[in-house]
Design brief:
Strand order of the largest sheet: 1-2-4-5-6-7-8-9
Order of helices and strands: HEEEHHEHHEHHEHEHHEHEEH
Domain EAL: 24-278
Distance between the termini: 58 Å
Bound molecules: ligand C2E, magnesium ion
Protein name: EAL domain-containing protein
Structural class: alpha/beta
Number of helices: 12
Number of strands: 10
Organism: Duganella vulcania
GO molecular function, one term: cyclic-guanylate-specific phosphodiesterase activity
Strand content: 15-25%
Oligomer: single chain
Keywords: Phosphoprotein
Length: 296
């Protein structure tokens, strides 16, 4: 029986492995055509100032709408795009699309906001990155201060000297930078001071657990204090509840992003949200921002 079940298990693993390989192969083959077939879109998620309640920026998040696979989540294809190198071309499209869209909102008379784009390790190492970002800015006409690049912690900590040099060049161009998923990789605090970035983004795994795990809460409070004392602004990702919002406000986190305020929206939906000037209610004791703010 043990032998039998062992064999069944092995067959199960083999089948699972084959289907994983098959899925990967299929995703890879399909992804090669995704751009040319116009299957990629960007969704935009607002970033909100916790003190004033105003929308202060947005993150562009990639979506792949495939005719038969349906909506494929970035978790399933970003890794494949990285390994095959397709991410370089896709990333270029993402940066350009985000710049042009942001410029279109500004030209439509909306308050200028910063758009953040995620940059993967492969793109970051690509020697053409700076030139391509520059081209996206000049072709769209977007002022560099309205573009932000999000770099993950593991990306910048992997080769610190190289990363510091690239980050400094990008900063000199006038672009904002943030360290994404902060706390999930390993960061040497000594290295953190070398990066002239604007934001630390507290990873959503901490936000999710901070109200039930006292040690996680301690980490969140420490990251807020550490980040701010090093001159960064701190933003919390994945805020889903009023209680999380209240906790982050109490501990003076700067900004937040999460389903509580809004899921990532297609460009037209995001434009409507901006036009409605919907914000969070300001923190108690704060004067409302000079725009209409509504309770959630
Ligand atoms: P990320 O950059 O850390 O983005 C945040 C993720 O959290 C997004 O998932 C977002 O939809 C999700 N999120 C936001 N608020 C909440 C919330 O309140 N609760 C929960 N549970 N989730 C929330 P998404 O869009 O699936 O993207 C996943 C990851 O894929 C991103 O993580 C980023 O690493 C990568 N990614 C997405 N778009 C791009 C892109 O254009 N280029 C690159 N290189 N990577 C991208
Ligand atoms: Mg991000
Ligand atoms: Mg993140
Ligand atoms: Mg994340």
């Amino acid at each position: 029986r043990a032998k039998e079940s062992g064999r069944n298990q092995l067959q199960f693993y083999e089948a699972a492995m084959h289907s994983r390989i098959a899925e990967r192969t299929m995703i890879e083959a399909e992804l090669r055509h995704a751009l040319a077939r116009d299957q990629l879109r960007l969704h935009y998620q607002p970033k909100v100032d916790l003190r004033t309640g105003a929308v202060v920026g947005m993150e562009a998040l990639l979506r792949w709408q495939h005719p038969t696979l349906g909506m494929v989540s970035p978790a399933r294809f970003i890794g494949v795009a990285e390994e095959t190198g397709l991410i370089v071309e896709i990333g270029r499209w993402v940066t350009r699309t985000a710049c042009f869209q942001n410029m279109a909102w500004q030209q439509a008379g909306l308050t200028p906001l910063r758009v953040a784009v995620n940059v993967s390790a492969r793109q970051f190492r690509d020697p053409g990155l700076r030139r391509e970002v520059q081209a996206a800015l000049s072709d769209s006409g977007l002022d560099p201060r309205y573009l932000e690049l999000e770099l993950t912690e593991s990306l910048v900590m992997h080769n610190v000297d190289g990363a510091v040099a690239v980050v400094k060049e990008l900063k000199r161009m006038g672009i904002a930078l943030s360290i994404d998923d902060f706390g999930t990789g390993y960061s040497s605090l000594a290295y953190l001071k070398l990066f002239p970035v604007d934001y630390l983004k507290i990873d959503q795994s901490f936000v999710r657990e901070m109200l039930t795990e006292p040690k996680v809460a301690a980490i969140v409070r420490s990251v807020i204090a550490l980040g701010q004392s090093l001159g960064f602004k701190v933003i919390a990702e994945g805020v889903e509840t009023e209680a999380q919002l209240a906790y982050l406000r109490r501990h003076q986190c700067d900004d937040m992003q999460g389903y509580l305020f809004s899921k990532p929206l297609p460009a037209d939906g995001f434009g409507e949200l901006l036009r409605s000037e919907r914000g969070l209610a300001p923190a108690p004791g704060e004067t409302p921002a000079d725009q209409q703010t509504l309770l959630l």
